[in-house]
Amino acid sequence: MSEAPGPTKAHDPVSGAPVRVAFVALGSNVGERFEHLHAAARGLGAMPATTIVGCSSIFETAPMGAAKFEFLNAVIALKTVVAPLPMLDVLLQLERSRGRARDEKWGPRTLDLDLLAMYGDEGPLAVTHPRLTLPHPGITARDFVLRPLMEIAPSLQVAGQRLDHHLATLPKSARTVRGRHGLPLLERAPFGVSVPLLEGG
Ligand code: ADP
Ligand code: MG
User: Which end of the chain has the lower number of beta carbons within 10 A, N or C?
Assistant: First the structure.
């Protein structure tokens, strides 16, 4: 991601840790799919010093690769002091708590949580670690990520281009979204709100 958010000097008053905005993609194509997504959203909001600041609606998505079942997908924005690797550990723990098994690539999954990007005073975090790549390299290639992300952060830029540009130039084979549920994933969460750390850059 390349957009430079304006300076906010946002720090947690207790710990002094930097406050950042994180975007998390949620997906499920097995079992009680809505319940898996809701449980994940609750778990994300329960992280220490974390607030949900944006929540997309839920998208129905055709399976990619060898997967057989339709996915539900959504994106959540969090304001958080949790650092990237501890955040990944929370995501993997939430996946396990919904019975996620890791066998085949693109196989059925009760819950998939991907950390798309994190923004702080310093702009978008760039992380290259054996366990974590930020921004997530798949953002621009997936309509089931771009479309919910556009709902909650329409002015965001990824790889120097707006999200709607990436969506318009996606090949037909990457257009997998079949429909959209009208309500946001969390009914009482803000929907389509601006994310303060991204404004004014
Ligand atoms: P995928 O989401 O690509 O289908 P998995 O969910 O099985 O694959 O994730 C495999 C691994 O990807 C995770 O164990 C994690 O260490 C790694 N990974 C690297 N970057 C990220 C990221 N930005 N978000 C989530 N996982 C990531
Ligand atoms: Mg994943």
Answer: C
With a 6 Å cutoff on the Cβ, whether 131 touches ligand 1 is yes
Does ligand 1 lie within 6 Å of residue 114's CB atom?
Answer: yes
pLDDT tens sequence for the chain (201 residues): 554 444 456 888 878 889 999 999 999 999 999 999 999 999 999 999 999 999 999 999 998 766 678 999 999 999 999 999 999 999 999 999 998 876 666 667 899 999 999 998 888 899 999 999 999 999 999 999 999 999 999 989 888 899 999 999 999 988 999 999 877 777 655 544 444 444 433
pTM to 2 decimal places:
0.89
Which residues lie closer than 8 Å to 23 by C-beta, 6 or more apart?
Answer: 75, 76, 77, 78, 115, 116, 117, 118, 149, 152, 153
- In the structure, ligand 2 is a single-atom ion and the residues with CB under 5 Å from it are 112, 114
Any atom of ligand 1 within 6 Å of the Cβ of 93: no
d(C-alpha 110, C-alpha 48), whole Å:
25
